[in-house]
Amino acid sequence: MAISSHERVSVPSAPPSAPPSGARTAPPPPGREPHDASIGDLIGEIGTDLSQLVRDEIELAKAEVKQEATKAGKAAGMLAGAGYAGHLVLLLGSLTVVAALSNVMNVAWAALIVTALWGVAGGVLYLTGRKRLATVNLKPEQTVETLKEDARWARHPRS
Predict the structure, then answer these.
(1) Full 3-state SS string of the chain
(2) 56: left (phi over 0), alpha (psi -120 to 50) or beta
(3) pLDDT digit string (tens) for 68-122?
(4) Of 15, 51, 64, 87, which one's alpha carbon is 20 to 30 angstroms from that of 81?
């Protein structure tokens, strides 16, 4: 887009006189052109804008974390409900098996057989879980190694 000659902005030919060294300058009044602002004013504005940007980003992160935590809480509640429903299915299914076996044998023997089956299943799950838990290493090895490397670099930095 071309600017016509009557739309061009005039730029002063000489910069405004600089204040004496050590003198403080007031911030430019509203409507003053950015090229008229001092370096200190511009740096101050950059610092203010940067701190506002950081505050805004922190608020956005808080809102996102809160929203995701709410979704995770609802999902965990649904999983807990599913676990409870699964428990009821196993319980009532076991009672059904006991009732079915009681047609063939004494009710006490049917209940004992179903209990023994659940005992074996529980024992297998316990042993498998204990074996897997023994292999868990809670020490974050990669993080520890990275921290050691950072410490070595801090003692002897290289370009």
Answers:
(1) CCCCCCCCCCCCCCCCCCCCCCCCCCCCCCCCCHHHCCHHHHHHHHHHHHHHHHHHHHHHHHHHHHHHHHHHHHHHHHHHHHHHHHHHHHHHHHHHHHHHHCCCCCHHHHHHHHHHHHHHHHHHHHHHHHHHHHCCCCCCHHHHHHHHHHHHHHHCCCC
(2) alpha
(3) 899 999 999 999 999 999 999 999 999 999 999 999 999 999 999 999 999 999 9
(4) 64
| Backbone Cα Rg of the chain | 37
Give residues with Cβ within 8 angstroms of 94, minimum separation 6: 114, 118
The residue type of 103 is N
Contact 131, 123 (CB under 8 A): no
- CA dist 90 and 94 (Å) reads 6
